[in-house]
Each structure stands twice: as structure tokens, then as C-alpha cells.
Design a protein that fits this description.
heterodimer; A: five-stranded antiparallel β-sheet; B: alpha+beta; eight-stranded mixed β-sheet; elongated
């Protein structure tokens, strides 16, 4: 269980080794903010596997998107993907996710924690950003921004909130080293089933299943930048999908990259979940991405 | 394939491209990375959100709904064509004061013994050359430095330490560097700098940038403490010069 403050991520500092951070499921994060009428990059809570119990000391609109953690207000069940007005003294409580992994809790006005290098995202390794650089604990008090709330009335189109829970293969593109070191490795990825290992967290997911090795086997590359969704093939044979808190550079061959459209699906995976991969062309991946952005823009 | 230069472009997924300027670690290859970075920053391409330099490549992050892949390739091409004509701003030399040995450098003796030279020899060689900051990565503020004299190359510790204080200066194989954050690590720790390579609360959180050059400067424990005090009072200014 891990609840942290996240906004859209820290941009512009990767050249100094500073990770981007931000939400593991960006789509659900955006939906939660949209529902309470927050601007796009507002800070909210990301809850992992199970969610917190929160008491409200002032009137606030709240919305939850992502995994269904059976949210309740004052003991009465409510739904995800809808804005609710929390009165003073009311209690929002979340339980365990019964599908998916992460929920995003957005509050009108956004969470007001100090901005560090342009972002309110939590950088756990460096103990900076977010709420005092750490996960939230019992007794913590969050301040919210003062902007007037303009929550979305009515419901979201139901399909959009379900997108991070889509089943089917995860779509990948070849990576920068696929041509030189990774053709066999890419084939192994495309022809096998993998499970998310217990050794997985916000930095990255290790995949158990087929052995995926670069050729020659001992290949490392000169340290190079990476993206979220980059799949590395270390010599040990267990591929790694880099996620939100990844280090900014890596020395393992980059043999594939997950299509951006499927990154939210990765954010909803738990250790033990099984995945397969299929290849998508750059052109198709970008067409789908443009369509998704258009859909979100129309809702805002 | 880019015109005019021996560079290769690869997509890195659907929201980034990689431009490789060479296949080695060398000042020449790295210089091309920085020239291309400079040229692209000047172009200020709409839809490009971030550019990250490394030893021999540049990663360009972009939003394909703002700038199309083909258009981006075109703009990179244009930037690459006249690379040699690009004069980079003068490089910065930053002096890094280091207190060597004793409590700050518990492995200085080991390095000296391994290389069969004296403690002061290790220090003189380490401080006697300048180092290029090729890139940053691995952790915020961690610099990949080039130029360690081969006389100081020492294998990493067989049993890494669980806790290395921030500012520790070490040698690991052919590399030398400074730990910006407290972390576990296997490098041979020969000294410590009072400077903060990474200060998230500062208006300038990073002391060093890719393309800087550094020189280590030996100081004693008294001066170390003086600099620490100045840093705490926010009055310390690192010694820098233009190259």
C-alpha cells in the first residue's frame, strides 16, 4: 500500500538526472482532475492496492478514478468517476482494489504542497517533492488550493474510464537497440506470456516468464536516456519495463517501448498479473494517441 | 539518416526520438551531442518538451499531436547540417573543494596501497587533471565524469557500503565521481566535498551541467567546515571560470 501526492510529473530536469515521476496511470489521473474541475496538472493522491480514509475539514469536491476500491462517504457506498461534494466533517474511505491497482483521488483546488523543480510529484528516493518527500501516513494533513471549483456535472462517457482496464496484448514498438542487439529479444517478448514479478514498483516492473536476452549476451550499452514504457533487456534475462520513477538513464539495451496509449494499462497491473505483447507501428501508435488526446480535450 | 553528419535517428517509442552522434565515449562525440542540443534549443521546436543529452546520443521528447514525426526529423536534419559552425557558449570550469582521507576518505589508504603510491600521490594525481561532465543520470546531480588518470583506477569494493554520505568522492574501476545523495555504493571513497551537487530547495538545484569541466581541489578539515558554514548561511559561491 502506498499513497503519494502526484501531479503530471517533473519536466525539464532529466538532463540533471532528476526523474519525471507523476501518475502510473495518467488517464485515470486526468479523469479525476477533470471531474472536479481542476486544471490539467493539478496534484492529487495516487493510492496503490488499497486507499486511505480521509476526513474533510472544509467543503470540497472529490472524485476518484482508476481502480475500484469500493469508496464510501460516511459509510455509504459511492462510485468512481463522479464528483461528490464532501461537507465539513465527512469521511471518505477507500478499501482494497478488486480490479486494477491504483486509484486517483482528486480534490477541487488541487493538493497544495510546495512546488519542487516545477512539480508537486513525490520523488521517494530523493525524499523530496509531494508531501514532505514521502508516502502519506496516518495523521497527515493536506492543504488544498483555493481556486473555485467547477466540477463536471453529469457522468463521464463510460468507455473512457474503462480504457486502463482493457485486456489483450500490450502494444509495443521496437526500441533504439532492437536493430543492433535485440531482434531475438523482441521476438521473445512477442511470443511469450509474462507475469509482473514481486520485484516491481513505481520505478519499474520486472517480468517473469521467457528469458529475453540481448545478443551478444553480455551487451550493455553506454548509459543512455530512457522513456516511460522502455523495456530493457539486462544480461540476466528478466526484462524490465521502466515506469514513472525510473532513473533517467540506463545501461541496458532498450529492445522495445510500450505504446503511450497502453501506459495507463501498465499502471493498473499488480504483481502476479499476466501480460503478452504485440507489435504496433509508429504510425498507428501515434494515430491512436492523437485520438485519445482529442477525446480528453473535448471533455475538458 | 541525417545529411552531412554521421548521425543516426531512431524512434524511442511514439513520444521520443534518439539521435546518436557516435558509438564511443569521447569528448569529440560528446561535443556533437551538445552542439546538436544547442542548435535544437535555438530552433525552439513547438511540441518538443524536453531534450536529454548523454555520452553519444540525444533523446528528444515530443508531443506527436503538436509536431508530426516527419516534421521533427526535418527540423533535426536542419539543425544537424551546420553542426560544426555552431559555437557553443564557453564551457565552465568548476572547482570542487575536497577534504581527502581520514574520516571523509576511508578508502584512500586502500587505493594508495593497491596502486603502490603514497596518499599524497593519489591526491596530487586526482587533483592534477580536469574532468569533463559528459552527462548526468542514475541519480539527480550524479555526473558521469571523463578523464580519470589510469594510475588511479581501482576496482570497486567487494562488499559495497550500505551508507555513503552525500558529497563523497570516489573511484570505481575507471570512473571517478561524487555521490549527490546518501546511498549505498561500492566505490572506493577517497574524500568528501562540502558542496551540494543536488539541492532541491535551491533556485538552482544542480551545481553541475552536462558540458561543464571540473577540477578537484584539496582542502583541510578546517576549510571544509568553513565552507559548510557558508553554505548553511547561503553565502557560499563555488569558484568557477570560463574556458
Amino acid at each position: 500500500m502506498l499513497t503519494t501526492v502526484q501531479d503530471s510529473g517533473r519536466i525539464g530536469y532529466q538532463q540533471y538526472g532528476m526523474p519525471v515521476g507523476g501518475p502510473m496511470d495518467e488517464l485515470s489521473y486526468r479523469l479525476a482532475n477533470l471531474l472536479v474541475g481542476n486544471p490539467e496538472g493539478a496534484a492529487c493522491l495516487e493510492a496503490t492496492i488499497a486507499g486511505p480514509e480521509i476526513m474533510f475539514e472544509k467543503e470540497v469536491w472529490v472524485a476518484i478514478s482508476g481502480a475500484d476500491m469500493q469508496p464510501q462517504i460516511n459509510g455509504k457506498g459511492i462510485r468512481n468517476n463522479k464528483a461528490y461534494l464532501m461537507k465539513r466533517g465527512s469521511i471518505l474511505s477507500l478499501g482494497f482494489a478488486n480490479l486494477g491497482c491504483r486509484s486517483y483521488i482528486a480534490f477541487s483546488g488541487g493538493i497544495d504542497v510546495p512546488v519542487v523543480m516545477g512539480s508537486r510529484s513525490t520523488y521517494l528516493t530523493g525524499k523530496t517533492g509531494g508531501f514532505r518527500g514521502r508516502a502519506l501516513m496516518e495523521g497527515d494533513k493536506l492543504m488544498l488550493g483555493e481556486e473555485e471549483a467547477k466540477p463536471l456535472t453529469g457522468n463521464l462517457p463510460p468507455e473512457i474510464a474503462q480504457l486502463p482496464f482493457a485486456t489483450g496484448p500490450i502494444r509495443i514498438l521496437p526500441g533504439p537497440e532492437t536493430g543492433s542487439l535485440g531482434l531475438e529479444a523482441l521476438k521473445s517478448l512477442l511470443n511469450s506470456t509474462f507475469a509482473i514479478s514481486m520485484n516491481s514498483n513505481r520505478m519499474g516492473y520486472r517480468l517473469e516468464g521467457a528469458v529475453v536476452k540481448p545478443e551478444p549476451e553480455s551487451s550493455n550499452i553506454i548509459s543512455a536516456p530512457v522513456t516511460m514504457g522502455t523495456i530493457q533487456a539486462p544480461a540476466g534475462g528478466e526484462p524490465i519495463i521502466l515506469m514513472a520513477d525510473r532513473q533517467t538513464t540506463g545501461g541496458y539495451p532498450r529492445i522495445a517501448v510500450v505504446a503511450s496509449i497502453d501506459l495507463p494499462r501498465l499502471g493498473q497491473l499488480q504483481p502476479g498479473d499476466k501480460i503478452t505483447f504485440e507489435e504496433i507501428s509508429l504510425e498507428d501508435a501515434q494515430i491512436l494517441l492523437r485520438e485519445r488526446i482529442k477525446l480528453l480535450d473535448e471533455m475538458g | 539518416m541525417l545529411k552531412g553528419e554521421n548521425m543516426k535517428i531512431y524512434p524511442a517509442g511514439d513520444m521520443a526520438v534518439v539521435v546518436k552522434t557516435g558509438s564511443d565515449i569521447s569528448p569529440g562525440t560528446n561535443r556533437k551531442v551538445r552542439q546538436l542540443l544547442f542548435a535544437l534549443q535555438k530552433q525552439a521546436i513547438q511540441g518538443v518538451t524536453e531534450i536529454v543529452p548523454a555520452y553519444n546520443e540525444l533523446m528528444i521528447f515530443y508531443q506527436p499531436w503538436v509536431v508530426a514525426f516527419e516534421t521533427l526529423l526535418d527540423r533535426i536534419d536542419k539543425a544537424a547540417v551546420s553542426l560544426e559552425e555552431i559555437s557553443l557558449p564557453p564551457a565552465r570550469l568548476v572547482h570542487i573543494p575536497v577534504s581527502y582521507g581520514e574520516e571523509f576518505g576511508p578508502d584512500l589508504r586502500h587505493v594508495a596501497d593497491t596502486k603502490a603510491i603514497s596518499h599524497q600521490d593519489v591526491i596530487d594525481i586526482h587533483t592534477g587533471t580536469s574532468y569533463l561532465v559528459y552527462m548526468l543520470g542514475f541519480a539527480p546531480g550524479f555526473c558521469y565524469l571523463g578523464g580519470l588518470d589510469g594510475r588511479l583506477s581501482t576496482p570497486r569494493k567487494e562488499n559495497p557500503r550500505t551508507r555513503i554520505p552525500a558529497g563523497s568522492v570516489g573511484i570505481g574501476g575507471d570512473q571517478t565521481g561524487i555521490y549527490p545523495l546518501e546511498s549505498p555504493g561500492g566505490w572506493q571513497i577517497i574524500g568528501r566535498t562540502p558542496l551540494k551537487l543536488f539541492d532541491p530547495d535551491s533556485t538552482e538545484p544542480f551545481l553541475l551541467s552536462p558540458g561543464d569541466t571540473i577540477r578537484f581541489q584539496q582542502i583541510d578539515s578546517q576549510e571544509y567546515q568553513q565552507i559548510m558554514d557558508q553554505i548553511e548561511q547561503k553565502v557560499y559561491k563555488p569558484k568557477t571560470e570560463s574556458l
